[in-house]
Amino acid sequence: MIDYTKLVASTAREIKPSGIRKFFDLLNEMKDVISLTVGQPDFETPWHIREAGIESLEKGKTYYTSNSGTIELREAISDYLDRRFTLKYDPQKEIIVTVGGSEAIDIAIRTLVGPGDEVIIPMPAFVCYEPLVELAGGKPVIINTKEENNFKLTPEELKAAITPKTKLLVLPYPNNPTGAIMTREDLEPIAEILRGTDIAVLSDEIYSELTYGRKHVSIATLDGMHERTVLASGFSKAYAMTGWRIGYVCAPREIAEHMLKIHQFAIMCAPTTCQYAALEAMVAGDEDIEYMKGEYDRRRRFIVKSLREIGLGCFEPEGAFYVFPNISGYGMTSEEFAEKLIYEKGVAIVPGTAFGACGEGNARISYAYSVKHITRALELMDEFLRDHR
Amino acid sequence: MTKLLKLLEEDGRLTPDQLAVMLGKETGDIKKMIDEYEREGVILGYQAMVDWDKTDRECVNALIELKVTPQRDRGFDRVAEKIYNYPEVRSLYLMSGGFDLAVMIEGKTMKEVALFVAQKIAPMDAIVSTATHFVLCKYKDKGIIYGTKEVDERGNSPV
Q1: Chain A contact for B110, CB < 8 A?
Q2: How big is chain B by its Cα radius of gyration, in Å?
Q3: What residue ranges define each of the domains in chain A, with the CATH number in brackets?
Q4: What is the per-residue pLDDT for B83?
Q5: Distances (CA, A) of B31 to B6, B16, B86
Q6: For the segment A235-266, what is each residue's pLDDT rounded down to a tens digit?
Q7: Cis status, amide bond into A17, omega within 30 of 0
Q8: For A22-165, where are the E strands, in sequence order?
Q9: Which residue of chain A has the CA closest to B4?
Q10: Which residues of B fall within a CB distance of 8 Å from A21?
């Protein structure tokens, strides 16, 4: 019998499985759960976008595109980023169309991080940065952002984490799972620390269209930051296109040319059908965003108020479609809380520890659900909290 | 407050409390606005969307195209009034194009609808011609797609 422990490379073997796999296994076993766990829109992709994908198939657009994506799509992305966020990227040399924001993050990290390099990751955050950094031989340096700072990254925390080995700062805002954002005023002192260093920024802006009240500001628009920023984004959240797996990464050409090599050898090009759908989203999708954002915003207000009413303190999220209430007052860990809630009331939420140890004491609740669904779930949560008070 | 009206148009059962939170207003203000909309006839009513095909109740719908001679001074209003007062008439629109009035009729059977057209509508003085089209299948009405159930197909991967 072959020795699999020798067969599987140590780098792969040493990747820690997601800490809450047990929880998701439980969730997938249970029937008739009222779930508030999903990290994707409840809208279907707008029909005109789907039609553009279908039409491309009907017209026989079934070939590879150029490695970095069709030039039409890259030009449309360039226009879009300028139009909505005043970001300037050259479609010829600085934009690569990727298989979702995930690939964008992957090739950015693999391009920038080598053995021994330190990567600063503010948590709680989406789970992929740490393992990807480790796969590249780098060392994740975690900053535990704090609820009292509304889960923003503070300049003091950043300064304390920087060492001579620091290579990259991951900036995951608007944030999954907390819903925190970084305003221009929040970003400026961060940029001030980085200016004049050789530290790059990976700005994961997948939720950039979903901010409520104020427009998202990309750190790449601040003085001196464009040259050191890699921007990862995509179509999944803004256009309800999660299943299409299509995104993009933008960077100065000196970085982009190396990312393109990894993309070329690992992926070849993003799926052609999805590129045509994405093009339609870029040129004719602004109204879809407004519509969906309006819906999320109404649900956001509703869920924050309702959570506070049933006694769960909750800082006001300004981005994405999650709330991250504090559940620490019930004598249970986040995971115990979530498990009991499923068993006793059939309601599923994600323990905060899924997004890093510092998520202990909180839970992520998604409001990518109908108001009716949210109302029912919160009624049951209210009963649960009364039972455990 | 177009937003308030749009929300109610989509779901007439949202409570003033819920609407107030969603729109960032006071519950009292929302109640006042709804009262005013109702008084002014901006909000005309609240109905449930029923898929009768899923029930035992027999019912057929038809679209009747009417060509009409308009009346001096009154145009189409008088004849429209005579038609819409029948409870069988569910909707009535004045149209541009090849005919004048579009009448949506609901009845128990095709025969009942046909008789209604023949006995009540066609004989009216102003009616020049009628063409009756029965609805065979309702796919979508008032923005709601028929025949689908609410199933959440989103995968539960840890995102």
Answers
A1: no
A2: 21
A3: 4-45+287-388 (3.90.1150.10), 47-285 (3.40.640.10)
A4: 96
A5: 16, 6, 34
A6: 999 999 999 999 999 999 999 999 999 999 99
A7: no
A8: 34-35, 95-98, 118-123, 139-144
A9: A298
A10: 158
B18 touches A at CB < 8 Å: yes
pLDDT band of A29, cuts 50, 70, 90: confident
Domain boundaries, chain B: 2-39, 52-138
Q: How far apart are CA A206 and CA A232, in angstroms?
A: 7
Predicted-assembly ipTM surpassing the 0.85 threshold: no
pTM: 0.88
Strands A229-234 and B60-68 turn out to be unpaired
Mean pLDDT across chain A:
96
Q: Is B3 on the interface with A (CB under 8 A)?
A: yes
Q: How far apart are CA B31 and CA B19, in angstroms?
A: 10
Show the tokens assigned to A82. 């300028």
User: Hey, what CATH topology would domain B52-138 get?
Assistant: Alpha-Beta Plaits (3.30.70)
CB atoms within 10 A of CB B140: 10
Q: Could you tell me the two tokens for B148?
A: 């689908």
Report yes or no: A190 and A158 within 8 Å, Cβ to Cβ.
yes
> Residue A350 has what DSSP assignment?
E
